[in-house]
Design a protein that fits this description.
- The complex is a heterodimer.
- By secondary structure, chain A is α/β, with parallel strands linked by helices.
- In chain A, 23% of the residues lie in helices and 26% in strands.
- In chain A, the strands form two sheets. Chain A has a seven-stranded mixed sheet with strand order 6-5-4-3-2-1-14. A seven-stranded mixed sheet of chain A has the order 7-8-9-10-11-12-13.
- In chain A, a hairpin with a 4-residue loop joins strand 9 and strand 10.
- In chain A, helix 3 packs across helix 5 (214-224).
- The longest helix of chain A has 14 residues, at 240-253.
- By secondary structure, chain B is an alpha/beta fold.
- The longest helix of chain B is centred in the C-terminal third of the chain and has 17 residues, at 264-280.
- The radius of gyration of chain B is 19 Å and the shape is globular.
- Chain B has helices at residues 46-57, 73-76, 104-110, 121-124, 195-210, 238-248, 264-280; strands spanning 2-7, 28-32, 39-41, 63-67, 91-96, 128-132, 138-141, 144-150, 158-164, 167-172, 215-219, 252-256, 288-290, 297-299.
- In chain B, helix 5 (195-210) packs across helix 6 (238-248) and helix 6 packs across helix 7.
- In chain B, the strands form two sheets. Chain B has a seven-stranded mixed sheet with strand order 6-5-4-3-2-1-14. A seven-stranded mixed sheet of chain B has the order 7-8-9-10-11-12-13, with helices on one face.
- The chains are: A alpha/beta, B alpha/beta.
- The interface between A and B is large, with 41 and 40 residues.
Chain lengths: 270, 300
């Protein structure tokens, strides 16, 4: 069965909208995977609000896989229509303790920070699922593994039976044991969605911040044998023109790689 | 005195080709007064690029004052990424209302709760000084006089009046109609039998607060149709802004807190509807109504 990957949020850290970021987008992280009528939502940055703008039906069951709880992966939740719909159930999945996710939502939905009164008062039903091992979620086979980040962050491998996507943001793919295991785990995926935030220069002063350079991500894709790599978690100020140039440079450096910087709203297929 | 819009949007940042004219960043304004450090109102995503520009222009010893209308996310979320906070010698003063549960400082600190952002609060804490503000205050910030008023919004939300050298700017956001719609914590103390009287007193106080202002940035999140049934969301319409301006002899209104749903053409429709409203009541030309693009400013 066909499988679509759509980015509604491509940016890392913060959304700082500007007309020079229209192509690659400015909303913080949110990726949606569709297979037939079924969908999975990966992370809930401001992109999830933008996704919600496109959702005709805000009623039903929604499945959200959360990589970690940094704000740029959580901050859009209040703008996801189904979270306020009395006939919706929002399922949250993470290998992190559910209790911690609830504490994070306690802060996010505290009445001090918005016109709400705690997540327990939301109109929709929230279901929390702690991932312990591989799980079938809404028709997708899902497995997870730890990445290299400042706070434990998880990659997801998602398959609809015909195609496999690996979602790996935020990840600093230095050559360590964990990344070598990650490479083995992700081996041969159809689409690799990979953190690629920094230039080589930026990385020098940001080593250990939990993000990769473009070239690091591409080398990982080569090692994995990914059929396609979509680079994401763009640095907030990176302009469309800069990304176009960087992309052209990478295509020369990695001629065997089918690579692209993730663009807002483009439908990617294996 | 110059008033600059750094973020024009309410609720959440949004970027599409049909929204670039009025901008997609959430609320932040800058007031430049010659001979004093920049004065900002709020720190939504519009503050992020400003921070980078300031850090580049003045890498050491940056000083600024911030007035916070309230601590809803769209008004504060850029602070952890405000570039001067990572530079030597920076000192910023953050002034605003507390929430029912937390002080302003606690609310800023909570943003940095473990695992939510890779920047510990302790890293930037010494560069920030917090002062709690209440309604009905009157104080000086360097060369400016600042006054506060309670607005009708969830929790404690303050409107600001900033005066300098005979010119006045008022910032009235976020703010909702008061009739049968009491959103602020202070309104909770009102006695039911005195509601209409209290509402009138509240509104009269707001009118005197903005009286004779040269410029008023006003929450105009909704249209007259769009607000129906959503009064409790805490926002206003262009017509409400016009009514207040007319009663208080305000000279100019800037529309603000555009809804994320608003395309550029919708913002233009709001300007037109405010102007037609003025015409329909025979007050054409009494108040000028405009919306500015992100980054645009106005001299007073």
């Amino acid at each position: 069965m066909a499988l679509d990957v759509i980015f509604y949020g491509t940016r890392g850290s913060i959304s700082a909208t500007s007309d020079d970021t229209l192509k690659y987008g400015s909303h913080t992280t949110c990726v949606v995977i569709n297979s037939g009528e079924k969908s999975l939502i990966l992370d809930a940055g401001f992109g999830i609000g933008f996704y919600s703008d496109h959702l005709k039906n805000k009623m039903g069951d929604f499945h959200l896989l959360i990589s970690h709880f940094h704000w740029d992966h959580i901050q859009g939740l209040n703008y996801f229509g189904p979270i306020h719909h009395p006939k919706s159930t929002n399922h949250f999945y993470t290998p992190k303790p559910n209790e911690r996710l609830k504490e994070v939502l306690d802060i996010y939905f505290d009445g001090s920070y918005g016109p709400f009164n705690g997540w327990k008062e939301l109109n929709s039903k929230l279901e929390f699922h702690k991932l312990e091992g591989d799980l079938l979620i809404n028709g997708f086979q899902v497995s997870f593994r730890l990445l290299n980040h400042t706070d434990p962050c998880y990659a997801y491998k998602i398959s609809n039976g015909d195609h496999t996507i690996v979602y790996a943001t935020d990840h600093e793919c230095v050559d360590n044991e964990n990344n070598r295991e990650f490479v083995k785990w992700a081996k041969g995926c159809d689409i690799l969605i990979h953190d690629a935030m920094y230039t080589e220069n930026e990385y020098e002063s940001r080593t250990g911040w939990g993000h990769s350079t473009f070239a690091m991500a591409c080398r990982n894709a080569v090692a994995i044998g990914a059929k396609k790599i979509l680079l994401t978690h763009h640095e907030p100020l990176r302009t469309d023109k800069e990304i176009d140039l960087i992309e052209a440079g990478l295509e020369k450096e990695f001629p065997s790689l089918n690579l692209a910087f993730a663009q807002q709203e483009v439908v990617y297929k294996p | 005195m110059k008033f600059i819009l750094l973020g024009t949007r309410g609720s959440r940042p949004i970027l599409t080709p049909d929204r670039v004219k009025y901008g997609g960043n959430t609320t932040a304004f800058k007031i430049e007064i010659e001979g004093m450090s920049p004065l900002y109102v709020d720190g939504g995503t519009g503050l992020f690029r400003e921070g980078v520009a300031m850090a580049n222009a003045q890498p050491k010893g940056f000083r600024a004052n911030f007035l916070i209308t309230h601590t809803h996310w769209d008004h504060i979320l850029a602070f952890p990424f405000f570039a001067p906070l990572f530079d030597e010698g920076t000192k910023i003063t953050i002034m605003g209302p507390r929430s029912e549960e937390y002080t302003v400082e606690e609310l800023f600190k909570l943003q940095h709760n473990k695992g939510l952002i890779p920047i510990p609060f302790s890293m930037i804490k010494d560069k920030m000084e917090f002062k709690e503000l209440h309604p009905d205050m009157n104080f000086e910030i360097e060369k400016a006089t600042v006054k506060t008023v309670q607005l009708n919004h969830q929790g404690l939300t303050l409107g600001y009046r900033i005066e300098h050298s005979g010119k006045t700017i008022c910032v009235i956001t976020d703010h909702a109609p008061i009739e049968n719609n009491h959103l602020g914590v202070l309104m909770k103390a009102w006695k039911k039998e005195e509601f209409s009287q209290s509402e009138k007193a509240f509104y009269d106080r707001l009118v005197s607060f903005v009286r004779d202002a040269d410029l008023m940035l006003h929450d105009t999140h909704f249209t007259q149709d769009g607000i129906k049934g959503k009064e409790s969301w805490g926002h206003s319409t262009p017509e409400m802004a016009v009514d207040l301006a007319l009663k208080a002899n305000v000279k100019k209104i800037i529309l603000g807190h555009h809804a994320p749903e608003d395309l550029d053409e919708h913002v233009e429709n709001k300007i037109n509807s405010a102007r037609s409203y003025l015409k329909s009541i025979g007050k054409e030309g009494s108040v000028s109504v405009l919306a500015l693009s992100e980054g645009e400013g106005i001299w007073l």
